[in-house]
Design a protein that fits this description.
Elements: H1 3-33, H2 56-59, E1 71-76, H3 84-94, E2 105-107, E3 118-120, H4 122-125, H5 136-139, E4 142-147, H6 159-176, E5 183-185, H7 203-209
Parallel strand pairs: 1-4, 1-5, 2-4
Antiparallel strand pairs: 2-3
Length: about 210
């Protein structure tokens, strides 16, 4: 074998060894730097209570002549759950009230409607007097707002219910120039004793939020 042939063979072996080494090194490098992704984790699910910032002007808009409202009377439903539709059926079918739902507005607690959801009753849309107190003279000039829940027990309105109530009451007092003194609880109506809206209703806190 000629000497240059021997050198060529040796050089080829060396080049093959170098190429093999580089290939192995590259595999190790990729293994260390590009690790396989871990088993995909499910994202944490955060349950956010229902609360939608609404256009309060649009919500309270009516297509008929507005009444001269002078008071706001606050109620609780004295039930753990419910919504405007449920109460309307009861008032219409059981109580036999022609116009159904006694209140003008119902604010949900998440059990029947969204927590903090403001439902507008037909009495408001048609500007019909309420049926939420035993005094008809008061009903004729009073806006009835009912929060779903029983606040005579240990629970209070949800945070969203309270925020919605503040927004609604603030709007109505400004729109109809209703003084704070005319924002009353149902149990302040002097004719028939009632615990409504319950001992845990945040009446003082509400008044503090009214501008």
């Amino acid at each position: 074998m000629k000497i240059y042939e021997r050198h060529f063979i040796i050089l080829s072996i060396v080049m093959f060894a170098i190429a093999t080494g580089l290939f192995v090194f590259a595999l190790l490098f990729i293994k260390d730097t590009v690790k396989p992704s871990a088993t995909p984790q499910k994202p944490d699910i955060v349950k956010v209570p229902y609360f939608v910032i609404v256009d309060i002007n649009e919500l309270c808009r009516v297509e008929v002549e507005e009444r001269k409202w002078e008071n706001i009377v606050l109620h609780h439903s004295a039930t753990d759950e419910g919504n405007a539709h449920n109460f309307d059926e009861y008032h219409r079918e059981t109580m036999k009230w022609e116009h159904g739902l006694a209140y003008h507005f119902v604010i949900g607690n998440g059990k029947g409607s969204g927590t903090g959801e403001i439902e507008v009753g037909n009495r408001w849309k048609e500007q019909i007097h309420g049926a939420h107190t035993t005094r008809m003279d008061l009903n004729r000039v009073s806006i009835g707002i009912c929060l779903v829940g029983n606040f005579e027990e240990d629970n209070k309105p949800t945070e969203n219910q309270f925020e919605s109530m503040v927004i609604l009451v603030n709007y109505l007092t400004k729109r109809y120039k209703i003084p704070k003194s005319n924002i009353i609880k149902h149990n302040q109506v002097r004719k028939k004793h009632t615990a409504c809206p319950g001992k845990n209703f945040p009446y003082k806190e509400l008044l503090e939020e009214i501008d």
